[in-house]
């Protein structure tokens, strides 16, 4: 089984790797990591929890 994740950074990122997170979606989990520490810890969210977080962030200008 291939466990390699395809990581994405926001198009709002400046491309310099500062203050950004990277996101990788898998079938049952959305993974999030710090773009400055790619070998560091990952956060894992259920897809519905991630969707709720993104909706909250958009409406509250986080």
Gist of the model:
By secondary structure, the chain is α+β, with helices and mostly antiparallel strands.
List keywords for this structure.
single chain, 62 residues, alpha+beta, four-stranded antiparallel sheet, 1 helix, globular
Sheet with the most strands, sense and barrel status: 4 strands, antiparallel
Number of strands: 4
Number of domains: 1
Q: Could you estimate the helical fraction of the residues in percent? A: 10-25%
3D shape: globular
Percentage of residues in strands:
15-25%
Strand adjacency order, main sheet: 1-2-3-4
Textual characterization of the structure:
- This protein has one domain (8-59).
- The protein has one helix at 47-59; strands spanning 8-9, 21-25, 30-34, 43-45.
- It has a 4-stranded antiparallel β-sheet.
- By secondary structure, the protein is an alpha+beta fold.
- The N and C termini lie far apart (37 Å).
């Amino acid at each position: 089984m291939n466990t390699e994740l395809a990581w994405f950074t926001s198009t709002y990122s400046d491309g310099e790797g500062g203050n950004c997170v990277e996101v990788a979606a898998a079938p049952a989990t959305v993974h999030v990591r710090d773009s400055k520490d790619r070998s560091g810890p990952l956060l894992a969210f259920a897809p519905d929890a991630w969707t709720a977080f993104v909706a909250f962030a958009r409406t509250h200008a986080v």
